[in-house]
Amino acid sequence: MARVTVEDCVIKVPNRFDLVLLAAQRAREIAAGAPLSLDRDDDKNPVVALREIADETVRLDHLRDTLVRGLQKHIELDEPEETPEIDQTLFGIADATGPVISEEEVDEEAVEDELEEDLLEAEDEEDLALPVEEEEIGEAAGEEEEAP
After folding, report:
1. I want to staple 27 with a disulfide (CB 3.0 to 4.6 A). Which of 19, 45, 62, 106 is the partner?
2. Domains, the chain, with CATH or none
3. Each residue of 43-95: pLDDT tens digit?
4. How far is it, in rounded angstroms, from Cα 42 to Cα 2?
5. In angstroms, rounded to a whole number, what is the distance separating the alpha carbons of residues 60 and 71?
6. Where are the beta strands (DSSP E) in 5-116?
7. pLDDT tens per residue, range 83-121
8. How far is the C-alpha of 57 from the C-alpha of 35, rounded, in Å?
């Protein structure tokens, strides 16, 4: 970069760090296809950006705004936010499943679903039980009678 260009720019933007950020942003815009406000004269994009800043052919506030937007991770829009109903919040967070049920109320669907699951589990356990031979049952019963 030509020292003359940087010295001309420092008059317009006193902080050299801000100048580097603004010139880099403008050079990115030029590389993306933004129209030039000066003749290129075989200069590279950073030099053209500095010359534009020195000649005040670009708006510095526009460069600052686009630079800040580019660095933001969350861009907030000016749209009104929808507030959930008070009944549907729990600890300040909206409950996506529906209204909160108090301790006194009973969710009958949930109870029926749990009962069905328990019955299915009980049937599965009965199906998995190993068959016991009748002789072993008789022997076990006989041993119990002799013991007392």
Report:
1. 45
2. 3-71 (3.90.940.10), 83-148 (no CATH)
3. 899 999 999 999 989 999 999 999 998 888 876 677 666 665 555 555 555 55
4. 13
5. 17
6. 89-90, 93-94
7. 655 555 555 555 555 555 565 666 677 778 888 887 777
8. 12
